[in-house]
Amino acid sequence: MDESLRGKGRYRLDEAKARIAELEEALRFKQNVIISDERVAGFRGDWIAIPREDFEHARKVLDHEQR
Question: Helix or strand or coil: residue 30?
């Protein structure tokens, strides 16, 4: 394999790993609250509430991927 191609592949792998780490961090919400809600008919489980700042930060990081 040509060394220049190997170098490009390595660069892309490192870039992908960095992007994955960025996404993981953005989606690791700092705080969350589990809310049991029996008011909704047929709903089984819990709601998870996160602070707006965490949600907006994650959304910005994910939106960056779509550009």
Answer: coil
Return all residues near 15 (Cβ < 8 A) that are at least 6 apart.
none
- What's the pLDDT score for residue 66? 55
The boundaries of the domain holding residue 56 are 3-66
SS3 27: helix
The per-residue pLDDT for 40 is 67
pLDDT band at 7 (very low <50, low <70, confident <90, very high): low
Nearest to 48 by CA among 61, 66, 64, 32: 32
Please count the structural domains in the chain: 1
What is the phi/psi pair of residue 34, to 5°?
Answer: -90, 125
